[in-house]
């Protein structure tokens, strides 16, 4: 059993997921991991070197062989969590995994909670809060662009930028404190002017960063493109053609699509959810009318509206910022200002895909080195900028200093430097169990 010395218990979890595979990786972390590993395989392998060992359950009268596995030992603090840690590369049969898990529980370990490994790494100073969120994004990355964005965050690009801001603000706050503590020392007037200039420059930097950051946020969550138009213009057929599969029912009967149908594709290395909506028209059918209402909702929420129509004239109702697509150009030519396609003959489809991909890239363009990826980050920077703006508007040194301290506190919440306990469950709860 694990010693009861007040240290966190040894935790374990599969790091390789539950899908069928040849190998399953079981991770352990915590004081006592080494003793448990010795109980399973007899002696500890050399640190950070894979060794083939038999794993035994020695809790009964007769030792039972559980598996022959590759074993790695990572003594703390040089491990992911900063604690003594180990990995067991098991054969991935459910019976093997369950038997090893039972043996670990018998030795005093417990299954890890979601994100607990990364939370311990954060608690032990191995990563900060920004990097922890980057790890979660890296696990969820669907495209190369998302991978690069998440990897930059894991490598500390955002943390370094925000730390630079914090260092600048801390220096300015020190100057402000000097002006408060030594009002009669006749400090040079350029001290206060330098303070105000520094605050102004930092406020402008944050404002520009917030303005340019929307693209990276969209890239992280993916875009939504709503396909809208009147009944029977080929919206569902277009969705199927772009998705490369029959995601929506296609019928010559008007009003077939009653509810929004969604499918996920990649355009321009950006994840995009295509939404096929009900045809926009006046109707007395209660169900179809509800579909129209939901269509209008998706139009308001979409990052891009693909407005489909047929014929040689533009539709009377144009969605603001919408991309006009004229279908059935095998029957009628497309009017000026519209992209002409025929879903039936595939004419113009390559052009449309190119335009949609360019639109997706434009909507997600942003800072490459330290992108603003989450609403939490945006809220903290907005709060910081708000307090700096307030400080600039105040003439009393004491009040200005208080606003600057509030700005420091808001900025510190980004990386977890101050006041983060209320954030931790939210941040780490989104992780998979073995991370």
UniProtKB/TrEMBL annotation:
Q: Which residues bind Mg(2+)?
A: 236, 257
Locate the TrmE-type G domain: which residues? Answer: 222-361
Q: Which GO terms describe its cellular component?
A: cytoplasm
A Pfam family that this protein carries is MMR_HSR1
From its record, what is one biological process in GO terms? tRNA wobble uridine modification
**Which GO MF terms does the UniProt record name?**
GTP binding; GTPase activity; metal ion binding
Q: How does it assemble?
A: Homodimer. Heterotetramer of two MnmE and two MnmG subunits.
Q: What is this protein called?
A: tRNA modification GTPase MnmE
> Species name for this entry?
Komagataeibacter xylinus
């Amino acid at each position: 059993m694990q010693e009861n010395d007040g240290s966190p218990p040894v935790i374990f979890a599969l790091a390789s997921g539950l899908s069928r595979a040849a190998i399953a990786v079981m991770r352990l972390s915590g004081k006592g991991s080494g003793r448990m590993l010795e109980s399973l395989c007899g002696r500890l392998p050399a640190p950070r070197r894979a060794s083939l060992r038999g794993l035994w359950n020695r809790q009964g009268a007769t030792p039972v062989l559980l598996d022959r596995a590759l074993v790695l030992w990572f003594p703390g603090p040089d491990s992911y969590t900063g604690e003594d840690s180990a990995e067991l590369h098991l054969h991935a049969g459910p019976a093997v995994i369950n038997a090893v898990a039972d043996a670990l529980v018998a030795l005093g370990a417990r299954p890890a909670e979601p994100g607990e490994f990364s939370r311990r790494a954060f608690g032990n100073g191995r990563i900060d809060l920004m990097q922890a969120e980057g790890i979660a994004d890296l696990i969820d990355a669907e495209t190369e662009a998302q991978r690069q964005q998440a990897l930059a965050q894991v490598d500390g690009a955002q943390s370094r930028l925000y730390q630079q801001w914090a260092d600048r603000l801390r220096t300015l706050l020190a100057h402000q404190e000097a002006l408060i503590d030594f009002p009669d020392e006749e400090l040079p007037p350029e001290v206060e002017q330098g303070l105000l200039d520094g605050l102004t420059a930092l406020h402008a930097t944050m404002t520009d960063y917030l303005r340019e950051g929307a693209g990276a946020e969209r890239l992280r969550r993916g875009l939504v493109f709503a396909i809208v138009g009147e009944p029977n213009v080929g919206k569902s057929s277009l969705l199927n053609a772009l998705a490369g599969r029959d995601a929506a029912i296609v019928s010559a009967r008007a009003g077939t699509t009653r509810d929004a149908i969604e499918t996920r594709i990649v355009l321009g290395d950006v994840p995009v959810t295509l939404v096929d909506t009900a045809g926009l028209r006046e109707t007395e059918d209660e169900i179809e009318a509800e579909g129209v209402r939901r269509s209008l909702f998706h139009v308001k929420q979409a990052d891009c509206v693909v407005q489909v129509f047929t014929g040689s004239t533009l539709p009377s109702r144009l969605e603001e910022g919408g991309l006009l697509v004229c279908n059935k150009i095998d029957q009628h030519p497309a009017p000026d200002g519209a992209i002409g396609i025929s879903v039936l003959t595939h004419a113009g489809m390559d052009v449309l895909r190119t335009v949609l991909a360019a639109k997706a890239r434009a909507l997600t363009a942003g800072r490459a080195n330290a992108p603003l990826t989450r609403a939490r980050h945006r809220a903290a920077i907005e709060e910081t900028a708000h307090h700096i703006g307030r400080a600039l508007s105040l003439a009393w040194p004491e009040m200005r200093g208080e606003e600057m301290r509030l700005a420091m506190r808001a900025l510190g919440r980004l990386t977890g430097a101050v006041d983060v306990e209320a954030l931790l469950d939210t941040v780490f709860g989104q992780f998979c169990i073995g991370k």
